[in-house]
């Protein structure tokens, strides 16, 4: 056996350190990006609705709290795209975005039912 062959054998059995390589994050970038862009939009607007109901913000744009709340979807959407692009696979990105949407819109539905029933008026 040559010395070069032994070094190759040692490298095969050596565990990799750290996280994935940058090339691994670029795999399936199209499906990850589509998951973040398409499913991140309803998630960001769901967060906007949740915060609007929790903070009892008026829908009129002449108030400062309503104007500040309008910045939330953009920040959340960029975060969704970042999370989707850094996930391990396109399927995992899709799953994360779907679960996030179900949670956010489930909370919105619950808050809206409480608001309509009058239970949220005591907050």
What does this structure look like?
The protein contains six helices and no strands. By secondary structure, it is mainly alpha-helical. The chain has one domain. It starts with a helix and ends in a 6-residue tail after the last helix. The mean pLDDT is 83. Keywords: Membrane, Transmembrane, Transmembrane helix.
Quick summary of this structure?
With 123 residues, the chain is mainly alpha-helical.
| pLDDT averaged over residues | 83
N-to-C SSE string, H for helix and E for strand: HHHHHH
Briefly note the structural class of the backbone: mainly alpha
Q: Choose one word for the global shape.
A: elongated
How many domains make up the 3D coordinates? 1
The N- and C-terminal alpha carbons lie at a distance of 78 Å
What share of the residues lie within helices? over 70%
Number of strands: 0
- Biggest sheet features: none
Distinct helical segment count = 6
**Strand proportion:** under 5%
Using only CA atoms, what is the Rg? 23 Å
Low-confidence stretches: none
